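If you are new to this repository, start here. Below is one unmodified record pulled from the training split, so you can see the exact layout before writing a loader.
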Amino acid sequence: MDKMMFAVRCFFFPAIVLFMMLPAYSDGVSNDAYIAGYATGILKRDYALDFSALVVRDGVITLPVYDLSPEDRAQVQQILSEIPGVMGVELLADDKQQNIAVSSPADKQDTPESTLVPPSEVFPTGFLPTGHLFKPLLADPRWAHFSAAYRNYVGADIDGNNNGSVSFGETIPFYRANLGRTTVQWEAGLQAGVFSDFNLDASSSDLINTDFIASVYSSMRTGQFSSFARIFHQSSHLGDEFLLRTQLERINLSYEGADLRVSYELPYGVRIYGGGGGIFHKQPSTIKPWSIQYGLEFRSPWRIDFAAMRPILAVDFKNHEQNDWNADISARAGFQFDNHQAFGRKLLFMIEYFNGNSPTGQFYKEKAEYLGIGAHYHF
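And here is the target side for that same chain:
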């Protein structure tokens, strides 16, 4: 218990200090001016719009587009949302534009707090569309994305106290459409990931375990509400050097399952989510099927401009029937770098803490606790 409390203090105290220091380093006015100039330049190049009505407040762009077709509106939405530092894009297509006043540094202090409410977004439709209706779960140890992390086990370890962890994965939407004439959108696609752990204390940094996860998914979004459902396969495989060195009896861990998560985005960059699922066609057959998942995330709407970085904090909880519904806690905190992007994915550096039954497939019965730091690419 003492080790756990020490780890929690090491994780949360620096995060709280960073968030308290944020107002001293953030300059929302200059950031908004930069975004407004960038957006105006792009729109002048491609569209004949009334730029005098473009407003940027706390990273949120508001623009009347009543002269554009629905297809062009979706394209403008996507282009503006990719500008570094943009937190949201609201396109007004009715008389609401009459209520917009052009912001300036002089009136910035009077900006209403309601502008920090996430605006409704409409994403491009069709085959292989850009963007994603459901945002990634930042603290989920098994969310498919590209990452590399170092982990130091402070409790029971899997194999050695110093481990390296890498993941390779992606979420690819194949098709997206609106439901009738509504703003409700849905998409279907493929999500797949590979998660590997290595013993850095071994002479050859032995591969310990690799988990393979592949799924077909469907997601929906309307306003700040989104959902993500999938049917997936997961299998787990031990490394050759690990087996030769430990003579551990391998479990033929493989199963298919289905789950659902729902998410709601609150003001000030806060997001909550929850859901659950079950597994079937499982090996070994004695595995109990049901699980639930829930969590909380914070992506700061304010940016530290000298490094173009944005504070991030996320906590994820999982409870498995197999483990008597004990909670697996995964917490991460760090920074998202808005100006470091690849293929629409932003670079995040986060410290992490985990306590619960190991997320590493072959060791799902074992308790694990670790502190680490990692680099991640998330959309």
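Two things worth knowing about this chain: Residues 252 and 283 are 6 Å apart (CA to CA). Residues 129-378 form a domain with the Outer membrane phospholipase (ompla); Chain C fold (CATH 2.40.230.10).
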